[in-house]
Design goal:
130 residues; alpha+beta; 7-stranded mixed sheet; 4 helices; globular
Length: 130
């Protein structure tokens, strides 16, 4: 089951609302939505601290997916606090590849028009990919 781009974009955009629980942390500068082949959608937000102890929105969405014992990602979109689509960073790309061999086919949304590239296109020479 394919989840459409607009649904995922809106979920990610709605999460991209910065929240400062303290002077040392901010969450929600990036919101992420990912979908599985079954049509499940998992979401997450970034967490940032002054000493890099946080994580990306993609990591939070992946954690939610793994808690549900799923590992294959059909598509993923991340949106910043200004509503712009962001391509996952290298650390996030590698994480997605390590989760399951099928994730090389994950559709990565790269802009607000809904254009996509595969994860393997973004990581053609990834070390340790399945």
């Amino acid at each position: 089951m394919t989840v459409d781009f607009l649904t995922m974009f809106e979920k990610a955009r709605d999460l991209a609302q910065p929240y400062r629980p303290s002077t040392k942390a901010v969450s929600g500068q990036v919101g992420t939505a990912l979908s599985t082949p079954e049509g499940n959608i998992y979401t997450g937000v970034s967490v940032n601290t002054p000493c890099s102890l946080g994580f990306c929105g993609e990591h939070a969405a992946v954690a939610a997916m793994l808690a549900d014992q799923n590992a294959i990602i059909q598509s993923i979109v991340s949106v910043d606090e200004n509503g712009e689509v962001m391509v996952p960073c290298g650390r996030c790309r590698q994480l997605l590849l390590f989760l399951h061999k099928e994730n090389k086919n994950t559709r990565i949304y790269i802009n607000k028009k809904g254009d996509v590239v595969s994860l393997s296109d973004l990581m053609p020479y990834s070390k340790g990919a399945l």
